[in-house]
Structures are given as C-alpha cells and as structure tokens.
User: What shape does this take?
Amino acid sequence: VVEVGQPEHSAVTTCAYCGVGCAFKAEMRGEEVVRMVPWKDGKANHGHSCIKGRFAYGYAHHKDRLLEPMIRDQITEPWRIVSWEEAIAFTARRFKEVQAKYGKDSVGVITSSRCTNEESFLVQKLARAGFGNNNTDTCARVCHSPTGYGLNQAFGTSAGTQDFDSVDDADVIVVIGANPTDAHPVFGSRMKARLRDGAKLIVIDPRKIDLVRSPHIAADYHLPIKPGTNVAIVTALAHVIVTEGLVNETFVRERCNKDEYLDWAAFVAEERNSPEATEKFTGVPAADVRAAARLYATGGNAAIYYGLGVTEHSQGSTTVMGIANLAMATGNLGRRGVGVNPLRGQNNVQGSCDMGSFPHELPGYQHISNEAAREAFEQEWGVKLDAEPGLRIPNMFDAAIDGTFKGLYVQGEDILQSDPNTKHVSAGLAAMDLVVVQDLFLVETANYAHVFLPGATFLEKDGTFTNAERRIQLVRKVMSPKNGYGDWEITQLIAKAMGLDWDYKHPSEIMDEIARLTPSFRRVSFKRLEEEGSVQWPCNDEHPHGVPIMHIDKFARGKGKFVITEYVPTDEKTGPRFPLLLTTGRILSQYNVGAQTRRTENSSWHPEDVLEISPHDAEERGVKDGDWVRVQSRAGEASLRAKISARMAPGVVYTTFHHPQSQANVITTDNSDWATNCPEYKVTAVQVSPTNGP
Ligand code: SF4
Assistant: This one.
C-alpha cells in the first residue's frame, strides 16, 4: 500500500466487493486514495473490514484501465479510439439497425451487481422502454437467482429474513454451502465471535472449511456431503424433525398453510427420505444427520446461513425451498437469532435483483404479467410495455447461436470468464452483430465486443448499493470519473441517442423514480439515507424506517408455503473416465473473476488458481504438492497446479476462478437450475492427471 500523504478530503461510502456492505471513510488526497478507514457507524460492519475493502482499491488507478471509448465494425479488426459522441452514436445506430433487420426482440441487456441500484434500474429501463422487450438479465442469474425464486415461493419475498446483528442471538448456527471466513469475511468474523461465545455450529459442505475447525471453534457436526446431494440431506434433516416429533406445531398451525404442510410432512416422513436411506449417496453418516437435525430443532434460536454451494446446482431452487421448510417446521423465523439468510455474493447482487433486472420481473419483483404494475410503469415512462418475459442470459447465447439474438449491452460483467461452458458463451457472442461492453478494463468478453465504453469505479459515482440484509446504503463520489462519466450517465447517453427523453441530473432523481414505482422502496430517498445512514427494505408508509427482521407476525405472502422437495440426481455423473467431482469457490484475498483484485496489492496473496485435491486422490495419481495437473471434463480441460489438502474428501476436488489463465469455467458444464437456469458450477465430473505445465 502506498501512502500518499495526509488526506485533503473524505467521504463515507460503501465497499464495492461483497454482499456484507461494509461502510468506509475514503480519505483522499486529490484523486488518490490515502486510506480506506472502516467506518465505525457502518451498520453492516461496525468499524470492521477485510483485506479487500481495506486495501484492494488500487484498480481505480491501474495502468490497464481504459478511459476512452473504442469501436470496430468486426471483432477481427483492431480497435479505434473515438470520441464519446461517436461511440454513443455508433452504439445507438447499430442497435436500431439490428432491431430493424431482426426484430425488436433481437437485442438485450445485462445489468451488473457491481454497479449501483440506480445504474441497474436504468439499464433494465433501456431494454423495456427503449428496446421494447424484456430481454434484461443480471449476473445474479449465475449466483443467487434460486434464492429469489425459492424464498419468494416460501415466504413471498426474494430476500434474506434477518439483519446481520441478529446472529448475536443465535444459539445454533447452520452454515450450508458457504464459506463466510473467505467470501464474507466481516460477517464471518461476527459469526465466529458468536460461536466463541457458545453458539453451536452445524456445517454442511463437501470441504472442511475454516469454520469446521479453527482456533477456539469446532463444528459440533460437519456433514461432508457429496456435491449435488443438497436436496437429499435437507430432506433427511426434515425427515428426522417430522418423524421424531420435533415440529413446532404452534408455529406451523398459526403461520403456515395447513394442507401444504400435511402433504410435505407425509412426503418427508417416507422411509426413502430417511438419513439411513440417503446415506449411501449423500456420503454422510445417518447418525450425524439425526444428531444435527435434533440440535437444529431443539437447540434454541437456530439460524441458517447459506451461499452459492446451495444455489449453483441443478436443484438450487429446490434446496432453497427445502431450507425454508426446515425453518418453518421448527418455527425459526420472525425474531432475532433465527431465519433463512442467503449470504449474497457481490456488493449489489440484492440490489440488481430488486431493480427489475430479471426478464420476468419489474423493479420490486412485480411480475411483468401483472397488469396494474405494468400500467404504473407505462404511465411513468410514457411507453407500452411488453407483457411477455424476455430471455435469460443462457437463452440469449442459445438464441444468438440460432441466429435470432443479435445485439447485447453488457454493463460491468465479464460473462466470458464468469459464465459456465466458455465455448458456448464465446460461440454465442461471436454470432452477434453488436456486443457493447461497458467496463473498467478490456475484460475477456471485450474480445467479442464491437463497442467498448469505459466505466467508472465506485469512487467516482454517487448512488446506492443494497447488501445481503436488504440494507440500502449510499455510495459517495470522492473523485471525478476518470473516463468522464458515471455508468448511469453512459446509459442515459445511449437512451437519448436512441430517442428517449431521459434527463436525470443526479442519481437521487433516479432513486425518486424507483421509489414511485416500487412498493418496497416507496419511502427510500437519498435524503432519508443521508439522515438515517441506511435503511433495510421494505421501506414504505407502513415501515418508513425499514425492516431489520421480516415475517414477524405473518409472511409477506400470507401463510408460509411448504414445498415438496423431491431429490433428482444431477445429470452430471462420475464414471471411469471422469471419476472425481469438481466444485468451485472463492478465496479471501481475491474477488470473483479478479478483474479488480488482480490489479491491486492483493494480487500477491493469490497469484494463481490451484486445484485442491485429497492426499488419497493425489497419491493414486502420482501427483505431488505443486505439480501441474490436467483437469478434464466432458466440456473441456484446464491445467492447474495441485495443492494437496486434507480439507478435501477423497473423490472431490476444488478450485477458484479468479484468474482467466486457469480457464476454470472451460471445464464446468452447462447444466442449470430447473427453475432459474442458475448454472451448476458446483458439480462437474472430472479426471485429474499429471502434466508438464499449462
Ligand atoms: Fe468489502 Fe465484504 Fe470485505 Fe466488507 S467483508 S470489506 S464488504 S469485501
């Protein structure tokens, strides 16, 4: 970290990495960050931070950052640096040409969970009001879309039920498919403090993550499931709760739909769903499942925290609903210390979903087929909206290969590196007539772009992010955009060039429009956020100061809905050719595809992705620690260095995807969640063999 002198000015803003949403005071000298000081009044972090928020801001000034727009007619041609006027005119003209030739539905947008609420709102508005279709999606598609679907089914809202502070009152903490100490470090530390104070811990994860055993903490139960069997283990836990008489009858009677509960209880009670019957394919001893279920149901306040190890599966939505079933059956909802808590990945993934980025939902999760909701938007925007849902991200690539989808505007997401089955993504991008990438760097996706629009960092813009606990917080500009414009301004320039009469002067005006159109944001404004520091939605006439804990007296949908969670094995099978299961995740010092963290001081902490492999599997293949190995799947192959790790169970290997050269997503399949198309990153059958190098 380079100290650049005493600060001249500062502002409190919000971290642009993970969904914890830590507040920082950015201390600046001119346009240089002197330091990022964790903000003591930050309601998500209470003065704490991790090494990403504290130190990984250098990307804002990195030499790789592009500050001038570029265009080219064909992706085989070199880029031409042009003025903003020419780039915007080129973009608008080409979108119009594509729509004139292939129809209004031939183009679409992808919003970014790295950008602000206001920016995501404008990008989806461009699709709906400008392009005239609902072809808008977001990178939540590839992470927490099953959370949105599953929790909406069960409770009527697509969000976590608690605030982070609530963990202080948990007696039992269940962590499923999440690694908070690496991926959500500030909340992970908070959780550890509660565990050191005596809360019990159940970890359900194929790996021995840090929480299973770290100084002064040992999980009471670690259920090391075989990847892909989440639904079976969650249903087996429910089997024990129902058949051993551990259901909270009062809660279920008063709060949930009786007939749905009875159907569900009969289903989970079937012998085929018992821990003994499922042990042979989950790999978890039945006695441990029984003991964990008893602890969850009878140990006092029990809170479930889960991550992408739950959602990124072919049955991701089913597992989310299974977790909701467990919480309802035991009455672990509606007060402090309990709940169903998705640990959202990116800084604003909750917000990008809230802002109507999905092809079937307007802002505030109002279904596009809802006539009254559509009418409100039509009146505000002065256009007629299409009532049919648009294309999801994977369907955009499919349609591009079929020749019916020809133009895409991607704001702040490197889909080529982050989405599964890279070959399919690149084929889809290559088949398009117009790909517009708005980003900080020439990311992998830009290899297929015709227009590159340089974006702005969080230090260069005003706006809001919404964290994993539905907390809306201000992002404050501490330096002028080095590229000349904030991301919201660039979208507005495109809209104007396409003939739309947008005239926002400041992101606060965009938030005012969001509040007018979104019932759960009705009383949100920049003024309120300035005065109150932050607010957790819903923030409306009934709850003008927000709601830290949801579903206290009744669920948003009325009666809680139990859903039958039939386990369906994934199509991805191991066999003699591909005998191991690969699962993927993140590491503390790096962030997702690494576009930002790799360009900061943090890069030295994790210079390459490695393959974690059990001592047993390594020995069987003659692989030593640090050797290069080839990882082959049905989709492709990659080369990585091996890291022999006792964290790994035999039969399971693990890698991260922070470096493009590791090609981790070349090997992942294109299986996806049945309800939302969220990719099944967590289960890929592979073979691992020694090789000489990359
Ligand atoms: Fe940023 Fe998340 Fe670290 Fe907080 S925990 S500083 S939000 S990356």
